[in-house]
RNA sequence: GGAGGGGUUCCCGAGCGGCCAAAGGGAGCAGACUGUAAAUCUGCCGGCGGAGCCUACGGAGGUUCGAAUCCUCCCCCCUCCA
């Protein structure tokens, strides 16, 4: 068993935790933010860009890689790490999010999900067993259970039924797992119903996973609810296992969740926003296409050490974006990912130095000033 | 000199008596994006605080209850023939 989690430190005033995940492909310091690389690539970035930005672990996606190019092909070519030339740790999502996001193209059944491919319309039946099988073929370091990411809004009955399915599938996934070198995480669902969330914990944890995820948040519910779920449920998860808040989030969301004891995050926000021209800084969000940057010779963020900020002006980045140049997406993504990685580095350092609460407050205060821009 | 075609809102371009401040693109301006069907999507885009009014379809007249649309003259542009 090459997967392990070590809890190194817990913050004295909050529930923030400092930890270390060991995998066959390397060490991951937590709290960690994992850039999303759905189709075997973090869009617009080369692996070396990711490394230079400080990325430790990235995501891949079961559903997408199964459809194209096919998990057996990837297995034949040496697994996902080799295939995509990313030697570091990889976490694969199970396709559970696609159960949600491809709502119109799938049918949920007791034993799995009937998907209609968004690529060519062909039909595919994804079961918990298959989801694990695909992820074993991909060779990811952390596999996720197939779940149903319950949509918002959903009635209590719908949510309970959905949760029952997720729990049942979690057991199937656990049983289907054969490779001891790959970790498998369980996922806590339960929508916006706290009782169901607690039940989910009670039912998922005993199955015995290497880590636990909080899923089904950031699907359109009010932020308050997401925070409440995080606050309530995170402490109920086993202390000695990594906690993963799926699909989250904004820098503010991450800081909040870290303060409640969450260790792992992933989100498309930094990468997608970058491609769409929204750039993060400590004090403001920059919509790079805005006319106000037309003649601005400053970098996106004076305090940023990324390749983009060290070499290019806002005016140039605006030009590239407006002109529709590929380089705009590359440079923007490098910046946003580096921004997120620095955020996580700062979070880890502040926990280490027992000043996380102060750090969090500082960041949130400067974020609050965004409204002034 | 002769024959034909054309000048529409920032640009291209439809409209060819009322439903036209004028289709559709583009440009411009702004917004959204949370386990990626996303280099995507949305809104605004003549002026004046709105119902409304004003200014607008090369220019000037005219016909008509009503004109970007019909008529007259003028000014430009393009193609072909001499």
Structure description:
It contains 15 helices and 16 strands. It is α/β, with parallel strands linked by helices. An 8-stranded parallel sheet has the order 4-14-13-12-11-10-6-5. Strands 1-2-3 form a 3-stranded antiparallel sheet. A 3-stranded antiparallel sheet has the order 7-8-9. Helix 10 links the parallel strand 13 (243-245) and strand 14 (264-267). Helix 1 packs parallel to helix 14 (326-352). The structure holds one RNA strand of 82 nucleotides.
Helical region count?
15
Radius of gyration: 20 Å
Alpha-beta classification: alpha/beta
Major pleated sheet: 8 strands, parallel
- The N- to C-terminal Cα distance equals 51 Å
Output mean pLDDT. Answer: 96
The overall strand count is 16
**DSSP strand (E) fraction?**
15-25%
Largest sheet, spatial ordering of strands: 4-14-13-12-11-10-6-5
Low confidence ranges: none
* Approximate shape: globular
* Percent helix: 40-55%
